[in-house]
């Protein structure tokens, strides 16, 4: 296991119970309301289409709120994550909600070894996932291996243009970080996570990689997928640029001034074969 993977997994293991306990992930709302869906999946609904009866796998599923939402939309759902602590929370939530979801622990690049390859109608990758992967080509290869012929990839993620912006500058949009994938990670040090919690993290170092939009598309095309939809959005589910954004009624954050300057997220869909 690489040092980057070890550091990131330790960070997500520590974050998992904090996220499950926070109001941001709405765990208790899921338990109380059998029709509740995550804000992320509610945003995706107009594009997801009918899921009833489909075999769907959620890669990098974390504590499983989006996975549960896919199951509530009728999918036969699997979830995969490299964090044992995250999967413990995901299994607990599914159990409390009476949902039948298969959760498997592995990093994304081993997914086809631990899941039934070539059998999924849908591979779902939720927002904030790709930055934790060093090699977008290997990810695309994994997606292709999991999908059956005619199966679909649904990806929404932070836009790589946004990921190149330095959030410390609250008076301007300043590009300081890589747009294109690089072998060396961008190294972050912080004792904070992105939910509302008073607990500081002990695991403070994480490693991330950006992947340009062309790199993502080229990797998918090179592995036999056909692009069917690409939409760039002026919103994102978290306050990516503190001091420059406001939250809408839909839970999405947008730039306060001239929001047309910067794409914040994107949705991509592709079919195998």
Automatic annotation (TrEMBL):
Signal peptide coordinates: none
One GO-annotated biological process of the protein: methylation
Entry's transmembrane regions: none
Residue ranges of domain Methyltransferase type in the record: 58-153
Record-linked InterPro entries: Methyltransf_12 (IPR013217), SAM-dependent_MTases_sf (IPR029063)
EC number: 2.1.-.-
One Gene Ontology term of the molecular function aspect: methyltransferase activity
Keyword terms, alphabetized: Methyltransferase, Transferase
Name of this protein: Class I SAM-dependent methyltransferase
Originating organism: Pseudomonas sichuanensis
Upper taxonomic lineage: Bacteria, Pseudomonadati, Pseudomonadota, Gammaproteobacteria, Pseudomonadales
């Amino acid at each position: 296991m690489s040092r980057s993977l070890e550091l990131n997994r330790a960070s997500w293991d520590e974050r998992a119970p904090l996220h499950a306990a926070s109001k941001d992930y709405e765990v208790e709302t899921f338990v109380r309301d059998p029709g509740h869906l995550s804000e992320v999946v509610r945003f995706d609904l107009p594009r997801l289409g009918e899921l009833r009866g489909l075999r769907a796998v959620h890669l990098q599923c974390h504590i499983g709120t989006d996975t549960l939402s896919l199951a509530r939309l009728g999918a036969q759902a699997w979830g995969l994550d490299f964090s044992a602590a995250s999967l413990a929370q995901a299994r607990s939530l599914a159990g409390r909600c009476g949902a039948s979801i298969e959760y498997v622990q592995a990093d994304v690049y081993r997914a086809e070894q631990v899941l039934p390859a070539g059998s999924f109608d849908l591979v779902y990758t939720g927002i904030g996932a790709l930055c934790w992967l060093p090699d977008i080509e290997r990810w695309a290869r994994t997606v292709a291996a999991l999908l059956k012929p005619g199966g679909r990839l649904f990806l929404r993620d932070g836009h790589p243009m946004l990921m190149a912006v330095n959030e410390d500058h609250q008076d301007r949009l300043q590009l300081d970080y890589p747009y294109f994938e690089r072998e060396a990670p961008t190294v972050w040090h912080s004792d904070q996570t992105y939910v509302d919690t008073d607990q500081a993290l002990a695991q403070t170092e994480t490693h991330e990689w950006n992947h340009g939009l062309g790199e993502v598309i080229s990797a998918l095309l090179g592995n036999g997928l056909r692009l069917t939809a690409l939409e760039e959005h002026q919103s994102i589910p978290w306050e990516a640029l503190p001091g420059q954004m406001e939250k809408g009624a839909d839970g999405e954050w947008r730039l306060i001034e001239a929001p047309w300057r910067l794409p914040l997220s994107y949705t991509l869909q592709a079919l195998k074969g």
